[in-house]
Amino acid sequence: MPDLPPSPAWYPDPQDASLLRWWDGTSWTAHTTPAHTPSVPLATAGTAATGTSAPSSVATGTSAADSGIARRRPWWVTALIAVGVILLGGVLARTTPVLLALAVVAAIGVAVYVFVRGSAPRLRMRSRASGLLALGTAALLVFGGGAANGATRPANEATAVSATTTPHAFVAPTPTPTPIPTTFEDIDVTTTIPFERSTVDDADRDLGTTEVVTAGVDGTKVTTYRVTKVGGKETGRTVVKEVITLPPVTEVTAHGTREQQAAPPAPFTAQEEPSGQCDSNYADACVPIASDVDCAGGSGNGPAYVQGPVRVIGQDIYRLDNDGDGIGCE
Questions:
Q1: pTM of the model
Q2: How far apart are CA 319 and CA 316, in angstroms?
Q3: What phi and psi values does residue 11 have, to the nearest 5 degrees?
């Protein structure tokens, strides 16, 4: 009769004598437990390896299924536990993010401890593979917290937008206009600079006379503009430089300041009064008989003059006595 494979049970680990490894009836599994656990049914490694009949249980007679150490959970139980961890991470992320961070750090710490020590019996983690469960728990907590924050942020943003913005009617987007070419061109513009005027006093000229001594000449200036054209039409211009090609010449006018001096009076020359040639209306001096007689040295223009003073004894036909005191040409 052919030998049957050993039945599922705990057997000494062929690679580590301090551990027991679970034999599932066909091959070794990743489940291990310390060798000193009293409630685990044992079998020799040689029996499992050679394929002999199932080993006997320990003296207590309890099986692995009764101890609950290596009992396999249904897949849906594992899924429910994972969903619960994710939900727990979401709740902690919304309520107490600090507590979520501490839980993740604790799970990672337990995983590192199990990887280093090989097991954590007090936490019912009897193999290094259990450390993967701790890391998985930490990852599920982080995933649940991230999902909760991601779901909360859009809602908060939508609330903020709805509270601060005013709805508007739909406006169709304006079509993008076709770009219009922009060009630049430098042009020169020549302009006239008007000459200035100034005056100077000239003591060599009579008072009240004026004369232009320097003629004024307009100047010229060339201004360079940079003209901006959009679609062929000028939209603006800026000054690039200015050059004065012909400076203007200032017009100078001289004003005379010299005052005219009065001519000295002609010397008096006593003349005999020819009889019958002096006007009888005057005495003390011969006033000739003429169309008009003025005082010598005065502003009159003659043609005859008399050197005063003369006394009016009749009518002052020549108006020699301007002040009416009876004495003319004083």
A1: 0.28
A2: 5
A3: -135, 155
